[in-house]
Amino acid sequence: MPQERRANRGPGAAAANREALISAAREIFAESGFDAPLSRIARRAGVGQGSLYRHFSDRGALAMAVFEDNVTGLEDYAARPGVGLEQVLETIREQLVTSMAFVELLDPPVSDPCLAQLGERVGALLSGQLDSARRRGVVRADLTGAELMLGLSMLAAVLSRTPTGARAEVAERGWLLLRRGLDG
Amino acid sequence: MPQERRANRGPGAAAANREALISAAREIFAESGFDAPLSRIARRAGVGQGSLYRHFSDRGALAMAVFEDNVTGLEDYAARPGVGLEQVLETIREQLVTSMAFVELLDPPVSDPCLAQLGERVGALLSGQLDSARRRGVVRADLTGAELMLGLSMLAAVLSRTPTGARAEVAERGWLLLRRGLDG
Amino acid sequence: MPQERRANRGPGAAAANREALISAAREIFAESGFDAPLSRIARRAGVGQGSLYRHFSDRGALAMAVFEDNVTGLEDYAARPGVGLEQVLETIREQLVTSMAFVELLDPPVSDPCLAQLGERVGALLSGQLDSARRRGVVRADLTGAELMLGLSMLAAVLSRTPTGARAEVAERGWLLLRRGLDG
Amino acid sequence: MPQERRANRGPGAAAANREALISAAREIFAESGFDAPLSRIARRAGVGQGSLYRHFSDRGALAMAVFEDNVTGLEDYAARPGVGLEQVLETIREQLVTSMAFVELLDPPVSDPCLAQLGERVGALLSGQLDSARRRGVVRADLTGAELMLGLSMLAAVLSRTPTGARAEVAERGWLLLRRGLDG
DNA sequence: AATGAATGAGTATTCATTCAT
DNA sequence: CATGAATGAATACTCATTCAT
Asked: B3 and chain D: CB distance < 8 Å anywhere?
């Protein structure tokens, strides 16, 4: 038997495949960055190349799906009563450590209009809590939403280049620095 | 002779070739990022592919050479009398905007031991001026050299993802944010 | 049910599906040539890929069905009283302009035995009117049926390579040339 | 030895490779038409895929090279004293039988500007001899250059669809028909 | 019997690296 | 020691065909 095709698991596998692809993409993006070969994602997901393309017409669409989960989760979290900017930022910071995908989302590079939309959702979410945070003195009074996003992007950007092992520590230090600034 | 290759300029051209390769690499890295095809660098340098490999065994070695110049230049600048941390940082910021290569130097990603050494030279250079800067109130009193480097890395990292056109503005905003911090 | 597939319209839809496939194939072949993806045909027909294969075991079988209609239509037309070779040829010429499928039929390429049969039906049809046409001086006295078919094939062949926009004009010019010949 | 690379025959092989590629392309185009996989051409030429791309940046460039030879040969032939339209057309007809590449050249489909130029060279060549041919009664007095080209295209087009074995005979019959026309 | 998801072979193209000259 | 052609592994993407439901 020279070639042994993967068993065709039939249409019923569609939903499972989609999820497997997203998971695999999340992992592979995390390990190897956003430029990782799509073929590797398909293989990791245990799915044919064609199925990947059926579910996600291009790299951007796949990224979207990966990020969508993250953003939705974040929005849900932010909507809970008693959750303020501090908690949201803390959550983001945690996600940045574990999910390279999330890093990419806050990173300018991936200039996909759809991705940009997701980024804006995060921006909106943060802006929504900025007022209250300013009043409570959690951040300085003149901090703008754009500044906040830029700060997160900077953090995300270094982390995207940081080897997994060091990520937690770099995130910690970077975050602290970002909060306190350099000036005397 | 059906083809007309470039004249073999002989061994004497070795040094000139090396310089040409470095210049070309600096340009190409600046224009197209660190992942640009090596063949393009050789072509821009007006040098055969083989010569590139003779001089620089891999992409990292070439990057090294490019950065070496930057760092040496920076060290020379920093050694001038009357040049303090402010000026050095300002110079770095400018270089970050114009030279993608410099961005890469301050960026963790290229995890090449040799590159790390260069990064440390920048670190050393900054540390050397930190004391005075703290005393003069240019930075806060408890700022460490490592923190400073991390800040620059963060800036470099976003910039490495920022399209050329927006780089100057992002550098400006990012730097300001970095100096003032988020906290209230 | 995470996905919503088209309702399974059941066995009763078989005949309707078959027709829809033929129509869609005619359109797609006309628009995009004989090499168009089968999936596009199925989609245009509003039918599953599998059904396409159930009805037509391969591209050739589908083509057959498309051409069958054309040929039958042509036979019917030719059988009408008062319709002579002139009218039939004129009709063919018109069809060649609008229907890439018809072009393919008169074109040798698709060397499918079944298609050949259809071609022969066209040949028979023309031969049936050749005698009368020769007597009436519509064509030269020694023109054979095979020659006539070859001429049509030549016309079809260029047209199959002619971009849609120019097809009418090329058909016009080609037909004229074919009728008058080159010789002095 | 899991992989055995082809020996690198060095730059000296460049010219030979180029020729081998052209020959292979001529063969493959003849056998399988203009859409044949480029990889097959490289394999047939005994040359790496990359070398094909080095020599010919795209399919059109390769086709150009194949056709260039044909056209130049024809121009040389036509320039000989005593060679008139009859002989040139006869030569073209012969080439159409043996070289699918030549067929494609006279065929509209390959809408490459460079290829079009080559086609125009053939057109120019024919036009140059048309006057004399008309005077000598070789063709009818009102035949235009464009008509002549269209006729050749029609012949080429059928031939491009005709299986190798039948090509000579179809060329013969088609040519005769083209000369004499259909009309009574 | 209909559906459309799954599959992977096939093709174009790029680029790091080697090596004959 | 320089040159640049040669090489093929790697990757994105398409599409004919199969098959679970």
From this structure: yes
Using only C-alpha atoms, chain B has a radius of gyration, in whole angstroms, of: 19
Contact between D167 and C123 (Cβ < 8 Å): no
Task: Give the C-alpha separation, B15 to A22, whole Å.
Answer: 51
pLDDT reported for residue D11: 67
Contact predicate D112/D166, CB 8 Å: no
**What does the alpha-carbon distance between residue D58 and residue D53 come to, in Å, rounded to a whole number?**
7
Residue D133, class by beta-carbon neighbours within 10 Å (0-12 exposed, 13-18 middle, 19+ buried)?
Answer: buried
Helix or strand holding residue B19 (H, E): helix B14-32
CA within 13 Å, CB half, D147: 21
Task: Answer whether A41's CB lies under 8 Å from A21's CB.
Answer: yes
Residue A104: both structure tokens together: 């990419």
Rounded-to-integer distance, Cα B181 and Cα B58, Å: 39
Q: Read off the tokens for B167.
A: 């780089």
Residue D137: Cβ within 10 Å count = 10
Is D139 within 8 Å of chain C by CB? yes
Round to whole Å and give the CA distance between D24 and D122.
23
SS3 labels along chain B: CCCCCCCCCCHHHHHHHHHHHHHHHHHHHHHHCCCCCHHHHHHHHCCCHHHHHHHCCCHHHHHHHHHHHHHHHHHHHHHCCCCCHHHHHHHHHHHHHHCHHHHHHHCCCCCCHHHHHHHHHHHHHHHHHHHHHHHCCCECCCCCHHHHHHHHHHHHHHHHHCCHHHHHHHHHHHHHHHHHCCEC
Closest CA to A146 of B165, B166, B143, B152: B166
Query: What is the number of alpha carbons within 13 Å of residue D77 lying toward its C-beta?
Result: 18
User: What angle, rounded to 10 degrees, do the helices at D145-161 and C145-161 form?
Assistant: 100
Mean pLDDT, 10 residues at a time, chain A of 184 residues: 62 86 90 88 95 93 86 92 93 80 62 72 90 93 91 87 83 93 75
Which pLDDT tens digit goes with each residue over A56-102? Answer: 999 889 988 988 888 898 999 999 999 999 999 999 988 887 766 66
Q: Which of residues 152-171 of B touch A (CB under 8 A)?
A: 153-155, 157-158, 160-163, 170
Taking residues B75-98, report their average pLDDT: 90
Q: Which residues of D touch B48 (CB under 8 A)?
A: none
CA distances to B88, B128, B137 from B78, rounded to whole Å, are 6, 9, 19
Contact A75, A122 (CB under 8 A): no
> Three-state SS for D183?
strand
Q: Are D139 and D133 in contact (CB under 8 A)?
A: yes
Chain-chain contact of A108 with B162 (C-beta, under 8 angstroms) = yes
Question: Which residues in range 45-64 of chain B are in contact with strand F, contact meaning CB within 7 A of any of its atoms?
Answer: 46-51, 53-55
Residue C58 contacts by C-beta under 8 Å, 6 or more apart in sequence?
A: none
d(CA D18, CA B3): 12
Per-residue pLDDT tens over the stretch D122-170: 889 999 999 999 999 999 999 999 899 899 989 988 887 787 788 889 9
DSSP character at residue A6: P
Instruction: Identify the residue whose tokens are 């000989």.
Output: D80
Q: Between D138, D141, D180, which is nearest C181 by CB?
A: D180
Q: How many CB atoms lie within 10 A of CB A40?
A: 15
**Rounded Cα gap, residues C147 and C145, in angstroms:** 5
